[in-house]
Predict the structure.
Amino acid sequence: LEQPEWGDIPLDRQINQYKRYLEWAARGRPQPTAEAALDWLEKNKPENEPTGIVWGDARIGNVIFAEGGSPAAVVDWEMVTLGSPETDFGWAIFVDRHHSEGLGVPRLEGFPDYDETIAFYQDHSGHEIANLHYYQAFAGFRFAVVMARLAQQMVYYEVMDEEAGLEFEINN
């Protein structure tokens, strides 16, 4: 998980990996929004971040619940890495917002609001959320890169017409 060849600290390693992934996924085509986000992320990195295991895809759809609603398992670990715990927290909030605000639908009933979620996390983890804006932006960048590649695959396998422009709608 350490992968020192990608950088000196975990956040540099993650950024460098996604930067290379963006270069590969873009296939030489401009990705102005993702490139601007990458530039901002590189210039605004938080310092002295704690390091732990980052799940990488922390979202409600990757939790299996036992009868009664208790989490029984977390799945989908292909994006696991080392980094700040806020990486997963930012991703979870970003994906929740994407699947509600981003689609123009209300959040699921019964879920705590984001301030309550932050308070709960801080109380139970002992970790203060200090850079949520940064890690939500990082999540958006990661999401854009992954979706650009997914859009290309959908065109390649003729699930979607290239003129649909999904790759560029995500990144512009």
Summary: The first strand starts at residue 52 and ends at 54. Residues 100 and 107 are 5 Å apart (CA to CA). Residues 132-156 form the longest helix (25 residues). The helical segments are 10-26, 32-43, 85-99, 114-125, 132-156, 166-171.
